[in-house]
Design brief:
six-stranded mixed β-sheet; 481 residues; elongated
């Protein structure tokens, strides 16, 4: 990339911003990390650094200790290379082929109409800049770039952690400067399948769509009470069916299991289209009053469409009943710290295809027993409604450690660099620290990162100054560890 073409030209430190711009040109959605892995391996080869990669496209790059640090224990720096691929409906972007179109406005970096990938491209760029900095003072470094974090942490689960000697971890997958994340929730992904064969349909059909909702991360943002597009639309359809009979043709919404759906659309067969449209508009007006300011863009549209088949009345009711009853949102709060969410569940995706309507749900909890209970509730509900539920990609939580040297070093360093005190927090989202801690006994970990807002949405943005500050913070921590 030529200098004149660089959006981030002129920002310091140069290497940090160049690496972020370089990786932003590489498509790296979850499951499509071969390109970014090749870039990382080439980086290591060009600098004479030892590296390994695997069939999951995880990459380990090792750098020897700088002079005077040879006797100190190794330190692990870690983040994931994949990103959530979300875009606005009116944006043309192929996440398998197209690089991101970066832009800077008022000190914030974003991408045009798509997610930025700061989660967790910030980690990738920071690690590369540290590895490239010959003047940096540090113990032996083990930089682990994992994959498929956003879709179940498959990379961290499948990586050969016996290759790593360190037991001190700086995870770079947090989004709030001045905050040390010290524990996280475990979770699982579930699919609930309704087998429902369509029948010939002579009725008129309408396409009903919900859009304009804020969405967000289904763990980190679950306490904000943002509307779920799938559940909102299903509620509208359920209330409409009470007065204007309808049958589902299809139901499709959401795109990521770990994102709160922003959009959803259904095709319905109706006996009386004007009556159905009137009821839909009435329900939408009433629901709009319930929404938070973040969901002010809420919009419901209807339009006539052709349809030759529709589900039976019974199958329609089963599917809409599941959406009405499935646990969603905050379920319990931590007993001794009610400001912290203990358990939640979020319905992330629904798809109708090949004679099935499939819901994807993601329960989370920092307490294994609560997670077990949520999974059981969803399984029981599915069974009562004649559906089949299966759960997979369960990942462990990360428990708070009363004593932590790396946490102490972070708090001291942040105070030295900023003159202010950092906070220690637990988060309700999943972090790879839980998986890594399960694989490496005796792990001492902390998770930090730059200022990232609205991750997992096309409004994602990163404050450039905090990005550079986080890099400086990591370098100073390495001098102390």
């Amino acid at each position: 990339m030529e200098e004149k073409q660089r959006v981030l030209a002129g920002y310091e430190p140069t290497a940090l911003f160049e690496h972020f711009e370089n990786i932003s040109a590489i498509p790296r959605g979850s499951g499509n990390e071969a390109g970014i892995a090749a870039y990382l391996c080439a980086f290591a080869r060009e600098r004479g650094l030892e590296y390994r990669t695997d069939t999951l496209h995880n990459v380990l790059i090792q750098k020897p200790a700088s002079p005077g640090f040879e006797t100190r224990p190794p330190v692990i720096l870690q983040g994931h290379t994949d990103m959530v691929c979300e875009k606005n409906a009116d944006v043309e972007h192929d996440f398998l082929r197209d690089g991101l179109k970066l832009r800077v406005e008022d000190g914030w970096l974003s991408a045009e109409g798509t997610t930025l990938g700061g989660d967790d491209g910030a980690a990738v760029a920071i690690m590369l800049a540290v590895l490239e900095d010959e003047a940096a003072a540090h113990p032996a470094l083990e930089c682990v770039f994992t994959t498929q974090e956003e879709t179940g942490m498959d990379g961290a689960n499948g990586f050969d952690w016996s290759l790593v000697r360190g037991r001190t971890l700086i995870n770079l997958d947090s989004e709030t400067p001045g905050v040390a994340t010290v524990s996280c929730a475990g979770g699982a992904t579930g699919c609930v399948r309704f087998r429902a064969q369509p029948q010939p349909c002579a009725d008129r059909a309408l396409r009903v769509s919900v859009s304009g909702l804020a969405g967000g991360h289904s763990g980190a943002d679950i306490h904000l009470g943002r509307a779920n597009a799938v559940l909102t639309l299903c509620r509208i359809l359920s209330e409409t069916a009470d007065r204007a009979p309808l049958r589902l043709v299809s139901l499709d919404g959401g795109s990521k299991a770990n994102a709160i759906p922003r959009e959803c659309a259904a095709v319905i067969a109706v006996e009386d289209a004007p009556a159905a449209e009137a009821r839909i508009k009435e329900a939408a007006r009433r629901m709009k009053k319930e929404l938070s300011a973040a969901d002010a863009g809420f919009c419901v549209r209807t339009e006539p469409v052709p349809a030759e088949q529709a589900l039976s009345d019974g199958d329609t009711r089963r599917i809409l009943s599941f959406a009405s009853l499935v646990p969603n949102g905050v379920q319990t709060r931590t007993p001794d710290a009610p400001e912290l969410v203990e358990s939640s569940s979020s319905l992330g995706i629904v798809r109708t295809e090949d004679g099935e309507t499939v819901f994807t749900v993601m329960p989370r909890s920092s307490a294994d027993s609560r997670l077990d209970l949520l999974i059981r509730k969803i399984e029981l509900l599915a069974g009562l409604l004649g559906a089949r539920a299966e759960f997979f990609d369960r990942h462990p939580g990360w428990a708070f450690a009363p004593e932590s040297r790396v946490r102490k070093v972070y708090l001291e360093t942040y105070r030295e660099l900023t003159g202010t005190e950092a906070r220690v927090e637990a988060i309700h989202a999943g972090l790879e620290c839980g998986v890594i801690g399960q694989k490496l006994g005796g792990l001492d970990a902390v998770s930090i990162g730059p200022d990232l807002r609205d991750i997992h949405t096309p409004d994602e943005r990163m404050e450039l100054r905090s990005f550079a500050d986080t890099y400086a913070l990591v370098k100073r921590m390495l001098e102390k560890l």
